[in-house]
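Review this fold:
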Amino acid sequence: MQSQFSAIPVITKNLIILNLLMFLAAQTLGNAIAPHLMIYYVQNPMFQPFQLVTSFFMHGGIMHIFFNMLVLFMFGADTERTLGPKKFLFLYLSAGFGANLLYLLANYGYVQYLTQGLSPEQFAFATGQINQIATTLYSPELDSIRATAGKIWYTPSLGASGATYGVLFTFAMLYPNRILYLIIPPMPVKAKYLAIGFACMELYQQVYGINTNIGHFVHLSGAAIAVLLVWFWRKQGARF
């Protein structure tokens, strides 16, 4: 494993190292830095523009960072060698940043849709900013809105999944017929079919609200941005 790691191209290697260092710093310093580097709903007082970048260098636990870095380790090296370090870094950052931006816009639009027509006090209650309102302003529907809008308002997002999904789907575009050997289930599969399978799985879970603690929309957005970026480079005749 050590010899394999030393052979990884410089950008992929440094991204893995940076993610690991950020994870260790967050685990060590805890509330001193971690809450400020996650990304919050845009109207939440905790939101800062730099979180569009810092949040995809943060992770919620060992398994979270393990799987993201495994994807980057497995698919980043060949992708970087093909694209070159500058394009690879641009793609990684674009997928991560773009996925977060689309996530913010989608959440903002959804909250505005849920709360349209509410008074300022009802809006504050529905988004969890206050816990009580006048009886005359209360309705059972507000509790239902609060369950969704309040969660969006106060739940931060973090993780490199948007960026790493971008790397995975870029690899599948560059090497569509590369045979990969899965552990579960134990079978070979071409890279293009693996990417399609992941896309279908993420879309299904997003539409039907399965595993809502996982950012399926962010995963799909990162993948879509990377695919569009590679398509654009090919359209422009860029040499890989």
Summary: The mean pLDDT is 92. The chain has one domain: 2-235. Strands lie at 179-181, 188-190.
